[in-house]
Amino acid sequence: MNFLKRLLTGGLLLSIAFIKPLAQSTDTLIVLTEVNITENRLSNFNAGSTVYQPDQQLLMQKATLGLDEVLQFMSPMNIDAYGVGSSSINARGAGSNRTPILWNGFNLQSIANGGTDISTLPLLFSDNVKMEMGGNSALFGSGAVGGVIYLDNKANYNDAKKSFLTINGGSFGRFNGASGIQYGNKNYSGVLRTYYQQADNDFPFTGDYTSGDETITIDKDLPNANMHQFGVMSNNHFRLQNGQNISVHLWYQDVNKQIAPTIRDLGRGRTSDAEQRDQAFRAAAEWKAPIKNGALTVRSGLFSTETNYQKPSSADTTNTTGLSSINEAELDLNFTQWLKWNLGVNYTYEKAESSSYEGEKGRNRIASFTSFGINNKQSGTFVTLNGRGEKAGDSDFTITGNAGITQNIIGGLSAKAKAGTSYRIPTFNDLYWSSAYQNGNPDLEAETGFNYEAGLHYQQSFSSTHIQVQATWYKNSLENWISWGELEDGSWTVFNQDKAEIKGIELQANASRSFENGSAGFNINYTHQDAVDPDTDNLLPYVPKSKTAAAVFGEYSGLRLIYAHSFVDERYTSSSNSTLMPKYNVGNLSIEKRFEGEVETALTFKVNNIWDENYQTRQHYPMPGRHFLLGIQLSLN
């Protein structure tokens, strides 16, 4: 541990010493292609990691796909949907507040509750999606425990002007529209995209609610579930003199939704008139300058959120605002073709104010980090060592680190292994929430953990055929697990659970083949895990024993077909393991036909939940049965 502290301290001092002279060194500048800082860390310092990237053919229909659908059917991650209009991601049983989503390197997790509602993140706003499993706090700080999702926006210099318009309509009053335009020349690349969606969500459902010895069956249309969502994003990249690049990203999101009652609410005869409005503004800028044998990057982001919840029947109103400023400088050095070094500093300020807090709450977070990577392509050896030190508010200075190795065995077969530490600081809700029946705990300690994994990876291409197979075994042990629980008087509070252990296996295979006038392929993901509280031997709630996700696609002469299927095993709903939710199967079918011309036209027909499964991912939150979506997209190049 002393060695790691010295390494981080040395990296911080060296970064300060290097930045000024290297930034001034212009006589030996080399021109670099545009490289996103998050992509740099993911590709250069992730030896031994398990990384998933959906086949681009499966992401072609971005205007009709949500990020939640991609993660449900094309990854081992599990989706927790609170009915319609609200979903969270759960990687390796760690929960949404331990699975950060990074947008161009910036964490989108809420500083109030630590989660990210992925139903409000349209896939249309991302050019690239990757998922890295396992803990990675050494690279990305607090919260990177179960996995990390990367959403990036790329520059397209010298790209001709393109535009598109998409309109879709379907079951339960659903309508969505999207539009976009992009333009590029040798010095500028710009993209503007908009997205709008609305739905009544008044689907019929049947569900049971048990109270004592009585079981009540609810059979009706879901009330109070209307939703409106609007978003606009602008991405701009500029090439300056001496190979410098500046990128500016802007994103505004406005989601207004009614809060549908649960089956339990309906069984108890409660009024369903709650609604919530969430607004978010995200702005990020990055300056990258090539230097001798490397690059210097300075990045800054400002993120503002506002949530207004109200329920007129009970005069219940909650207003919560959040603001975070993230600032980072880092240096990438290539000593040789196979030896890389990254070091940097990060300063983050975050504050939140809520009618459920006692006044405004804020904290400063300061971190330094450094990474070494050895990638010898001749021997097939890839080794990385990462370290990070961070202090958040009045908490102790926390050190995290990991080391990984990937070693080619023969041909396209490689062995991989990775081990490291992770941590997560409490959210503002965990610390400061105060209401009649829910109260935070200002004495909470940060979670700390140790995780390791090992596996095999095979990848090979044969002319027009590409195959990839990987198998991973993992284990994650966490101390001071932060958990909300019910007290004897019926109120809820949050506490540090002694320990949690999560272990399992992941299997993934995909293959694709291109042929004249078309292509075809498949993607399969399987995970089996045990997430246990060692003190009671009970399984952690809402962590299924297994999940299987599969997607097959084919395209011929402009006709594309995609079928995606997800199977989720049984899972408990509480830490006492007293209630078990049944397993379920869900399948989606999509058919698209493209017509070429001066204006390219695409007609899309989708059937979601094609087998009309009656299921829930969270207890008492019904999900829609079979429903349809019909759309048209016009593209002009």
TrEMBL record:
Does the keyword Thylakoid belong to this entry? no
Fetch the InterPro entries from UniProt. Beta-barrel_TonB, Beta-barrel_TonB_sf, Plug_dom, Plug_dom_sf, TonB-dep_rcpt-like
TonB-dependent receptor plug domain segment(s): 49-148
Signal sequence range:
1-23
Q: Which UniProt keywords apply?
A: Cell outer membrane, Membrane, Receptor, Signal, TonB box, Transmembrane, Transmembrane beta strand, Transport
Report the membrane topology from the UniProt record. Multi-pass membrane protein
**Family per record:** Belongs to the TonB-dependent receptor family.
What name does UniProt use for this protein?
A: TonB-dependent receptor
Organism in which the protein naturally occurs: Carboxylicivirga linearis
